[in-house]
Amino acid sequence: MPVQTVAPRIEVRPSAPPPVNSGKAKVAVRDLNFFYGRVQALHNISIEIPERIVMAFIGPSGCGKSTFLRTLNRMNDVIPATRVGGQVLIDDHDIYAPGTDVVELRRRVGMVFQKSNPFPKSIFDNVAYGLRINKVTSSSSELAGRVEQALKDAALWNEVKDRLKTSALSLSGGQQQRLCIARALAIRPEVLLMDEPASALDPIATSKIEELIFDLKKQYTIVIVTHNMQQAARVSDTTAFFLLGKLIEVNATEKMFTAPNEKLTEDYITGRFG
Amino acid sequence: MVNYDQVRRATSGLMTTLTALCTLLAVGALLIILTYIAWQGIGSLSFQFLIDRPRPVGEGGGIGNAILGSLVLLLISSAFGLPLGICVGVYLSEIGRGRVGGAVRFIVDTLTGIPSIVTGVFVYAILVLPMKHFSALAGGVALAMIMIPIVARTTEEMLKLVPHSMREGALALGAPQWRVTLGVVIPAAASGIATGAMLAIARVSGETAPLLFTAFGSRFFPTSLNEPIASLTVQIYNYAISPYDEWHAQAWAATLVLMTLVLGINIVVRFLTRKKF
């Protein structure tokens, strides 16, 4: 069976609101190949990610899902000796075309990492960092407003509003991760990439982040890598399954977890390997 | 029949004792040196001694000009050495990868090993000879050259301790490389970099050899950076090799002052760079 290269069929879950913009792909990837030195990590990936949905990437460790996620905002550029072939179109513009402003790209495509990585600064300064470097506003009251809104969007405001000036490192693990989400949201990206954002968190913090993802998709296009299939089933509209650097199947999440098209997907989901 | 658990416990106990003994030996030697200097030096110490300039034998005199001179030399060397050393460290950690970085690192390591007297002679050749006289400036430059490789390597090590994920976090927010380095990585490593700078200052404040050919020494208070200047170490050296008991006692007292000065710099820098976050 060849690797699927057609656009995913988006099926509306009974409970989910209809996609706002089902016709248009926010992100379209065509024949993407990726190499770490001589090792090919991704093989001919083609996928379309529609606007304002949550797409989950699942697959066993080392299958390339994180690598793929990082090609979408060119975070792999910072790793030496890597090579990319193919196209990644965001709003029909190829982000690997010469002359692309990587800084501008990363402002539009935000990222939350597996391990929370707050800066050793105050809570306020962490969230304000992206706003300041991008010179979003020069007024300090507007800056404070944007920080407050981002912390509210990340469901952290009530826990930290009285101690914005204290160190971000004094927060608990789950709070730190929500702070990192707030930091990413503050600059209002169009796409939010999340690389196993809840893998190091306890169930309560995890459920908070999952609720958050559900709320955020009203405004953002979200791509989430997860090892946890229940999580993928809970939060996503569409799921993509990766294996050994290949995209095996993209399908509506409900369909994926009940009647996948591919035998490999079924084997993975039912725990026969991985 | 010896049981494995007993062997393990005995080995563990033996090793713990061994490391404790080594620590005791090292710290003990240091304490003996410090106490001996304090005991020898405290007798000649007085307020007058700290503010007066050297006088002929029998007339007392002091090390005020040498204290001032040492501070001036440390200021000059820090002004040149710290920024340069920190920049080299940032280059090695954040920018210089591959062959060029490797070559720079090798050169810096080699510089660390150059005997300080060689540095003194080198500065004598490039600064003192063309200027035709010894000067505080030449002394400061010689000390700065000793500082640069120390500061560069400690800065590099400290910057490398900053987790890569923190750099990625900033890059993912659309920060250009230079802002990541200046705004996130260097502040995160600031206290470590300051410790490295402090170690370098402490190291050069004890240097004598490079000053003999550059700052030379003086028996008067400094009036300009363009003239020879006194320093505690050179003063200690000159007094220690003199045949007079009075000067020997003054050398001990000057040593005590030098040690206190280094300790003071350490405490101030620690206070200024204590962890805020």
Care to describe what's here?
The complex is a heterodimer of chains A (274) and B (277). Chain A is of the alpha/beta class. Chain A has 10 helices and 10 strands. In chain A, the strands form 2 sheets. Chain A has a 6-stranded mixed sheet with strand order 6-7-8-3-9-10, sandwiched between helices. In chain A, strands 2-1-4-5 form a 4-stranded antiparallel sheet, covered by helices on one side. Chain B is an all-alpha fold. Chain B has 2 domains: 41 residues; 226 residues, Orthogonal Bundle (MetI-like fold), CATH 1.10.3720. Chain B is built from 12 helices and no strands. Chain B is globular and about 65 Å long. Chains A and B meet through helix 2, helix 3 and helix 6 of A and helix 7 and helix 8 of B.
Keywords:
heterodimer; A: 274 residues; alpha/beta; Rossmann fold; four-stranded antiparallel beta sheet; 10 helices; 24% strand; globular; disordered N terminus; B: 277 residues; 12 helices
Largest sheet of chain A: 6 strands, mixed
* Overall 3D shape of chain A: globular
* Strand arrangement across the biggest beta sheet of chain A: 6-7-8-3-9-10
Number of strands of chain A: 10
Oligomer: heterodimer
In DSSP terms, counting alpha (H) and pi (I) runs of 4 or more, how many helices of chain A? 10
What is the name of the CATH superfamily of the largest domain in chain B? MetI-like
